[in-house]
What we know:
Number of helices: 7
CATH superfamily of the largest domain: Winged helix-like DNA-binding domain superfamily/Winged helix DNA-binding domain
Number of strands: 5
Distance between the termini: 46 Å
Helix content: 40-55%
Oligomer: single chain
CATH architecture of the largest domain: Orthogonal Bundle
CATH class of the largest domain: Mainly Alpha
Structural class: alpha+beta
CATH topology of the largest domain: Arc Repressor Mutant, subunit A
Order of helices and strands: EHHEHHEEEHHH
Strand content: 5-15%
Strand order of the largest sheet: 2-4-3
Largest sheet: 3 strands, antiparallel
Number of domains: 2
Shape: elongated
Amino acid sequence: xxxxxxxxxxxxxxASLDPIRTRILQELVEPGSATQLAVKVxxxxxxxxxxxxxxxxxxxxxxxxxRKKGNVTERVLRATAASYLISPVxxxxxxxxxxxxxxxFSAFWLLALAARTVQEMGxxxxxxxxxxxxxxxxxxxxxxxxxxxxxxxxFAEELGVAVTRLVDKYHDGGASALASGARKHRxxxxxHPALKTNTxxxxxxxxxxx
Length: 210
């Protein structure tokens, strides 16, 4: 079972968004049969079977084992992942494209970059799983509080300079590097306001201090 599976197929995305099927996927983090699920979700077994067949058809659940009980064969299934994320590929015709614009101060460009990250990482994770290899990746997540907009701007400027310096130091774009098996990597650095909690003012009532 994967920790996270990225759904690219539009039909699979549609199937996963059904509230009952979402609940079934949640319950099937641990293997279970239609009979067991029927008790947990409060539906007839035949109805649960209908939803299970749809999820299995789209590759969102998998067969773990079959148990013989008299003349009946009980199928035990499990979700293919603990969590699911729908890739922008599922909305290919309207998915955001970061190549359309490259304004580093644009929140919409940040979203486009995040969408591309989901798309690319989904394909990379699937490929690594199929090849039974570990995917090399690295991420940093943290929070920083700025006293003023000018401090935030100064931080962003210094961060950009530091990252550029590191890229210049380690990047090897020569033909010899690619010929020797060097692997190109994607680098994305983002900075955005943290979501407000219930104890803070609502976004509608608060203006930025730019």
